[in-house]
Write a structure and sequence with these properties.
With 163 residues, this protein is α/β, with parallel strands linked by helices. The chain contains 6 helices and 5 strands; from the N terminus they run H-H-E-H-E-E-H-H-E-E-H. Strands 2-1-3-4-5 form a 5-stranded mixed β-sheet, with helices on one face. The protein is globular, with a radius of gyration of 20 Å. The N terminus is likely disordered.
Length: 163
């Protein structure tokens, strides 16, 4: 009985691990990363061929980044500004006062090995992985980029029953 329960749980986990929105990503914009990791990831993703790496963020379905939090949100606001609506001067003053009074929320770390694929429109994290480089050498960064893309390949495969 225990074996059946464990098998059923494993199947459910495998089925739930596949994110259908991840399957829809066809183009990726990669934000700059420390030690030029973005360049190594662009190379590996291009060679993978499932997703097109784009130089223009306006043509991307998703954003690949190594950090989340307020700086990331600000960068998304720069890349994809919200449509400007007409407001009168009183509303703008009240809004700016409220923004100044809100507490600042910061991310906990500077992104040392965690990579996130974020939906451009919803800003939801579609996929993430952790692969921390041992050092900043080009060979190590290339190895990590390969592992990150291999993790993505694995997670893009449709879940099969019985695994």
């Amino acid at each position: 009985m225990k074996l059946f329960v464990l098998t059923a749980v494993a199947c459910l986990v495998a089925l739930s691990a596949s994110n259908p929105k991840l399957q829809q990503v066809q183009s990726v914009y990669i934000l700059p990363m420390g030690s030029s990791m973005d360049q190594f990831l662009a190379n590996r993703l291009t060679r993978f061929g499932k997703m097109q790496v784009v130089a223009d963020p306006q043509h991307a379905d998703a954003i690949l980044t190594d950090r989340l939090g307020e700086p990331f949100e600000k960068k998304l606001d720069e890349l994809y500004p919200a449509p400007v609506e007409q407001k009168d001067a009183d509303e703008e003053d009240a809004t700016s006062t409220l923004k100044d009074e809100q507490p600042r929320i910061r991310s906990f770390s500077r992104g040392k090995g965690t990579f996130f694929l974020v939906d451009r429109k919803t800003r939801n994290v579609l996929w993430s992985t952790y692969e921390r480089p041992k050092n900043g050498s080009p060979d190590e960064l290339n190895r990590i980029a390969e592992r990150v893309v291999n993790n993505l390949k694995h997670d893009l495969k449709p879940a099969q029953a019985g695994q």
